[in-house]
Amino acid sequence: MEEKKKLWGFETKQVVFAAIGAALYAVLAIATNMLQLPGAGNVSIRPAVAIPMFFGVAFGPIVGFITGFVGNILADLLSGYGFWLWWDLGNGLLGLIPGLIYPTIESYRASKSIWKAEIFVVLGALVGMGLASLSEMWVSGADINTVIFANFLPAFISDIINGLILVPLLMIAYAAIVERSGRD
Amino acid sequence: MLVSWRYKYRNSPMDHIDPRARWIFSFAFLIAATSTWNWMFLLTYFIIALIWYRLGNTTWKETRSGWRLVLFMLFMMIVINTIITGGGAGGVVPPGGQLVWPNGFNLFGKTVHFGLTIERLWFAICQILRVLGISMNFILIPYTMDARSYGATFSSLGMPDKLAYTTELAIRFIPSLARNFSVTMDAQRARGFELDDIKGGIFSKIGRMAPLMIPVTMNAILSSEDIADAMDLRGFGQGKRTWLYELRYHRWDYVVLGFSAILIIGGLVASYVLHLGGFVVPQFFYNLFA
Predict the structure, then answer these.
(1) What is the residue-wise DSSP string for chain B?
(2) Which of A16, A70, A183 is opposite residue B227, by nearest beta carbon?
């Protein structure tokens, strides 16, 4: 009998998926730092943001959140960028919000599931990068124009492009594993 | 791909401070520094941060990647906030004010009228003090805190055991995942896949990453099932965890904790009870433009 998916479950399996996801996000973020966004200085394209989004969709919101939150902390620690809690929380939300559709997904290859994931990927990037950018108003005293043009837009646009392209590809590849191994 | 932690033991004063005391100090500093725009407080915090940063004995060469990021963000903030938009600077600087160049200035023979005010310029200096002070606290962490201590530290600071263990486990997975990434990259290169110099626009660049990301991700997911089973068989999550990395407070840690308490209580009382934290431009700064 198929086990019912719990939205907020965090058992041993989820601990391991979250840890794997966070480590993967950190490694891929560093590996893909070479792809810089033209004209936006230090902002890299970072295709790795698709990892917390996909882990949220595949394993639930807590796994998605930890993948983004801890993964971003580790990536920054490995790159020597320091520790920026508000951007780590924003990255956590990138994974948590797509994770809200986790219990509703029956097939990862169905176009309905992919559309749902795409919508929540955009929402996740909007809320996650919005929160992280707005926190700069509190921390740095930046005004709303600076927050929108220097912080939010470069991060939001690159995150949704990455998410919209890579999350469906990861979902289809994961569907093949699910079907082959019989896991849920 | 070489993935290595930035931490190394330097026998610096920072190496002898308990990681829990360091996190508490850094967050106390963050809260105190973000509660005020008064330049005297910000200057004091900046000096405290500078002393704290010096305790780490790090070099510019080691920390420059972090500083480049901070300086870029700071530059964007100052240029857009102070010079281009001239907005309300987060509602801190009142509208109006005294112009830096009331009669304009000469640029290539033409008189340029520019709306930069003394108040906005002073606000930019306060922003620099605040952001650099906070950055000095947090940039230091990767270089001076052992990655093995994170799980035990977060657990001891009240984070749920499962979450702290996830952090610990993620740190341990990094070398093997980096190795898997290298193997996959070599395998794709052997098939003629170009990875070093991906041509084309953003969409094609991202699309070209898929043959790398998908196998690495799927392999990691497949192996995680066995790890979870092994952990379940050993009774993971059944009781309180113990940690290999042992943490113990020393006398100087209590000094750091006491100082953190003074910093946060003093900062909040000064700002919200005594109302001393407001933005003010000192007279000497006005005199510079008289």
Answers:
(1) -----S------GGGGS-HHHHHHHHHHHHHHHTT---HHHHHHHHHHHHHHHHTT---HHHHHHHHHHHHHHHHHHIIIIIIII---TTTTSPS---BSSTT-EEETTEEE----BHHHHHHHHHHHHHHHHHHHHHHHHHHHS-GGGHHHHHHHTT--HHHHHHHHHHHHHHHHHHHHHHHHHHHHHHTT---SS--S-HHHHHHTTHHHHHHHHHHHHHHHHHHHHHHHHTTTTSS----SS-----HHHHHHHHHHHHHHHHHHIIIIIS---S----HHHHHHT-
(2) A16
The string of pLDDT tens digits covering residues A107-131 is: 899 999 999 999 999 999 999 999 9
B170 chain-A contacts, CB cut-off 8 A: 18-20, 22-23, 26, 70-71, 74
The CATH number of the domain holding residue A63 is 1.10.1760.20
Do B29 and B129 share a structural domain?
yes
Contact B209 A137 (CB under 8 A): no
pLDDT in tens, B62-112: 888 778 878 887 887 777 666 666 654 656 787 778 888 888 888 888 888
Owning domain of residue A147: 12-181
Residue of A nearest to B79 (CA): A146
- Domain extent, residue B60, equals 13-146+247-288
What is the tally of structural domains in chain A? 1
B158 and B255 both lie in a single domain: no
Residue B35 lies in a domain: yes
* Cβ–Cβ below 8 Å for A47 and B34: no
Whether B173 and chain A come into contact, CB under 8 Å, resolves to yes
Instruction: Provide ipTM, 2 decimals.
Output: 0.89
